[in-house]
């Protein structure tokens, strides 16, 4: 599509990719594996895109893989507003691992809640994880886990079970990208999580719709960003 626009002499091509696939392959963490996040960046740039608009990259340094401007939006304002309206009392925001702790800290500050962090480690290159500890107080509190995406939901189920074992009264979860691959829906359905709140960077359709899954729209956020890009206004000012 980008190549077709370029060959049709488009004056400017902005690629809007809400979910940047392969974002987790941003480094060589095992022998003989590709850095696919960089490869996709090269393909998009070579095809002729002049700018990229995306949301909540798995790792912010992925922006450096591009030689064109990258605007990374965040859905924190959307998720914050939703949970502010729910007005959950005795709330603690929980980062599902240390890597997501900054995002969770920002959300905790916005909601006026304390922060806890689940310390875990990945086992090999299989995606499996082992929970080591919960840093912070969750006993008797409503826990809200924060992550950038839910893929197979194995990490989500592990986090929910760990928090309940540590004494949380109930657990909510939120993320930006509902990948929901493989057994994710079955795991969420049988998991004791109270509610899973996601956005529609990836459509949640068909049998992926569950009563406990709430989908929030990103269209207003994307629309405002696209308007600002094409009128020369600041995109960063949206989050000030």
UniProtKB/TrEMBL annotation:
Its EC number is 2.7.6.1. GO terms for molecular function: ATP binding; kinase activity; magnesium ion binding; ribose phosphate diphosphokinase activity. Keywords: ATP-binding, Kinase, Magnesium, Metal-binding, Nucleotide biosynthesis, Nucleotide-binding, Transferase. It holds the Pfam family Pribosyltran_N. GO terms for biological process: 5-phosphoribose 1-diphosphate biosynthetic process; purine nucleotide biosynthetic process; ribonucleoside monophosphate biosynthetic process. The keyword Nucleotide-binding applies. It catalyses: D-ribose 5-phosphate + ATP = 5-phospho-alpha-D-ribose 1-diphosphate + AMP + H(+). SUPFAM superfamilies: PRTase-like. The keyword Nucleotidyltransferase does not apply. GO terms for cellular component: cytoplasm; ribose phosphate diphosphokinase complex. Residues 1-48 form the Ribose-phosphate pyrophosphokinase N-terminal domain. NCBIfam families: PRK01259.1, ribP_PPkin. This is ribose-phosphate diphosphokinase. It comes from marine sediment metagenome.
